[in-house]
Amino acid sequence: MASGDTLAIFSPRSNEPPTSNYATLDTRNTQMVLDFDTTTQETAIWSGVMPYNYAGGNLTVYVHSSMTSATSGTVGWDVTFERIGSGSQDTDSDGFATAQTITAATVPATSGNVFIQSVTATAGSTGTDSIAAGEKFRLRLRRDVANDTAAGDAEVHAVVVREA
Questions:
Q1: Antiparallel, parallel or unpaired: β 115-121 and 59-67
Q2: CA distance 151 to 69
Q3: Where would I find the beta strands (DSSP E) of 11-88?
């Protein structure tokens, strides 16, 4: 694959929530969103299969979000990958790589406006969990409530993974 090619697109509906502190499914003007709380670190998890033509490089994750009501402050996230390749992960437990921080950024002045934030995970065990082409993987997203300042829920519309 070439740098910049899209590898996965995850929607709110395809979230596989953990057993506790999960982002909640909601709608905004009939559009599905996942609501992430302002004080409790909530989580969303998606599964995918890495395309067979993935070259094994760095991965950039883009989070498309808006705010339920906030028109000031900042929102940040952390994302991480879990490789579920042949014999690489016992699915009875989690094995996510080191979380990659999406630095808190100023929210739009209009609460429904979507803004896009991103982070690049370096290929290898601590960044991408060494996911290889054709392997199943999971992506975990959490709001960085300890470091952002916007009040109210952050609404995730989509998460995109591209080869960096």
A1: antiparallel
A2: 8
A3: 24-28, 31-36, 43-49, 59-67, 74-84
Task: Give the start-to-end residue ranges of the domains of the chain.
Answer: 6-163
Per residue in 72-127, pLDDT (tens digit) is 999 999 999 999 987 878 888 899 999 999 999 999 999 999 999 999 999 999 99
Structure tokens at 140: 């975990």
Q: How far apart are the first and last CA of the chain?
A: 10
- In single-letter form, the type of residue at position 150 comes to A
Return phi, psi of residue 104, to 5°.
-55, 130
Q: Are 75 and 148 in contact (CB under 8 A)?
A: yes
Give the pair of three-digit tokens for residue 115.
């803004």
pLDDT digits (tens, 9 = 90+) for 37-70: 999 999 999 999 999 999 999 999 999 999 999 9
Give me the architecture of the 6-163 domain, per CATH. Answer: Sandwich (2.60)
